[in-house]
Amino acid sequence: xxxxxxxxSEGALERSAVSGLMERLFEAAWRTGVMKAEDVKVRARGYxxxxxxxxxxxxxxxxxxxxxxxxxEQKVELSTTLRQTMAEQCPDVxxxxxxxxxxxxxxxxxxxx
Length: 113
Description:
By secondary structure, the protein is of the alpha/beta class.
Protein backbone atom coordinates (compact mmCIF):
# COMPACT_ATOMS: atom_id res chain seq x y z
CA UNK A 1 0.00 0.00 0.00
CA UNK A 2 -0.28 2.65 -1.64
CA UNK A 3 -1.09 1.72 -5.25
CA UNK A 4 -0.42 3.84 -8.34
CA UNK A 5 -2.48 2.52 -11.27
CA UNK A 6 -1.71 4.04 -14.67
CA UNK A 7 -4.24 3.66 -17.48
CA UNK A 8 -3.33 4.89 -20.95
CA SER A 9 -4.66 4.87 -24.48
CA GLU A 10 -2.98 2.70 -27.04
CA GLY A 11 -0.54 4.86 -28.95
CA ALA A 12 -0.27 7.50 -26.22
CA LEU A 13 3.00 6.00 -24.97
CA GLU A 14 5.68 3.95 -26.62
CA ARG A 15 6.03 0.59 -24.88
CA SER A 16 9.52 1.59 -23.76
CA ALA A 17 8.16 4.83 -22.25
CA VAL A 18 5.71 3.03 -19.94
CA SER A 19 8.40 1.69 -17.59
CA GLY A 20 10.06 5.11 -17.50
CA LEU A 21 6.76 6.77 -16.59
CA MET A 22 6.20 4.17 -13.87
CA GLU A 23 9.65 4.88 -12.41
CA ARG A 24 9.20 8.69 -12.53
CA LEU A 25 5.76 8.52 -10.88
CA PHE A 26 7.06 6.13 -8.20
CA GLU A 27 9.88 8.52 -7.36
CA ALA A 28 7.69 11.64 -7.45
CA ALA A 29 5.10 10.00 -5.19
CA TRP A 30 7.42 8.98 -2.36
CA ARG A 31 9.43 12.20 -2.55
CA THR A 32 6.31 14.15 -1.55
CA GLY A 33 6.59 12.52 1.89
CA VAL A 34 2.99 11.35 1.72
CA MET A 35 4.13 7.72 1.44
CA LYS A 36 7.21 5.56 1.96
CA ALA A 37 9.09 4.27 -1.09
CA GLU A 38 9.10 0.71 0.24
CA ASP A 39 5.29 0.67 0.35
CA VAL A 40 4.52 1.92 -3.17
CA LYS A 41 3.18 -0.44 -5.84
CA VAL A 42 2.94 0.74 -9.45
CA ARG A 43 1.24 -0.91 -12.41
CA ALA A 44 0.09 0.15 -15.86
CA ARG A 45 -2.54 -0.98 -18.33
CA GLY A 46 -3.03 0.12 -21.92
CA TYR A 47 -6.42 0.30 -23.63
CA UNK A 48 -7.14 -0.28 -27.29
CA UNK A 49 -10.81 0.65 -26.97
CA UNK A 50 -11.42 4.16 -25.65
CA UNK A 51 -13.03 7.53 -26.27
CA UNK A 52 -12.09 10.87 -24.77
CA UNK A 53 -14.94 13.36 -25.12
CA UNK A 54 -16.30 11.21 -27.93
CA UNK A 55 -12.98 11.05 -29.84
CA UNK A 56 -10.00 8.73 -29.91
CA UNK A 57 -7.71 11.33 -28.33
CA UNK A 58 -4.78 10.14 -26.27
CA UNK A 59 -5.01 9.92 -22.50
CA UNK A 60 -3.06 8.91 -19.42
CA UNK A 61 -4.98 8.61 -16.17
CA UNK A 62 -3.41 7.87 -12.79
CA UNK A 63 -5.44 6.48 -9.89
CA UNK A 64 -3.74 6.68 -6.51
CA UNK A 65 -5.14 4.46 -3.77
CA UNK A 66 -4.11 5.33 -0.19
CA UNK A 67 -5.27 4.16 3.19
CA UNK A 68 -7.41 6.95 4.64
CA UNK A 69 -5.68 9.40 6.94
CA UNK A 70 -3.84 11.90 4.72
CA UNK A 71 -4.85 15.54 4.96
CA UNK A 72 -6.51 17.34 2.04
CA GLU A 73 -3.34 19.41 1.68
CA GLN A 74 -1.20 16.27 1.38
CA LYS A 75 -3.53 14.87 -1.28
CA VAL A 76 -3.45 18.13 -3.27
CA GLU A 77 0.36 18.21 -3.12
CA LEU A 78 0.51 14.58 -4.22
CA SER A 79 -1.93 14.97 -7.13
CA THR A 80 -0.30 18.21 -8.31
CA THR A 81 3.20 16.72 -8.19
CA LEU A 82 2.10 13.58 -10.03
CA ARG A 83 0.23 15.54 -12.70
CA GLN A 84 3.33 17.69 -13.28
CA THR A 85 5.47 14.57 -13.60
CA MET A 86 3.00 13.15 -16.13
CA ALA A 87 3.08 16.41 -18.11
CA GLU A 88 6.88 16.27 -18.26
CA GLN A 89 6.92 12.61 -19.30
CA CYS A 90 3.93 12.75 -21.69
CA PRO A 91 4.10 16.17 -23.37
CA ASP A 92 2.06 15.14 -26.44
CA VAL A 93 -0.79 13.36 -24.64
CA UNK A 94 -4.10 15.23 -24.97
CA UNK A 95 -5.66 14.32 -21.59
CA UNK A 96 -3.71 13.83 -18.35
CA UNK A 97 -5.55 13.23 -15.07
CA UNK A 98 -4.90 12.14 -11.49
CA UNK A 99 -7.41 10.83 -8.96
CA UNK A 100 -6.41 10.28 -5.32
CA UNK A 101 -8.70 7.83 -3.51
CA UNK A 102 -8.94 6.95 0.18
CA UNK A 103 -9.25 3.27 1.04
CA UNK A 104 -11.00 2.13 4.19
CA UNK A 105 -8.27 0.76 6.50
CA UNK A 106 -10.79 -1.54 8.20
CA UNK A 107 -11.91 -3.16 4.95
CA UNK A 108 -8.51 -3.29 3.20
CA UNK A 109 -6.85 -6.69 3.60
CA UNK A 110 -3.63 -8.01 2.15
CA UNK A 111 -1.40 -11.04 2.44
CA UNK A 112 2.38 -11.07 2.05
CA UNK A 113 4.60 -14.12 1.79
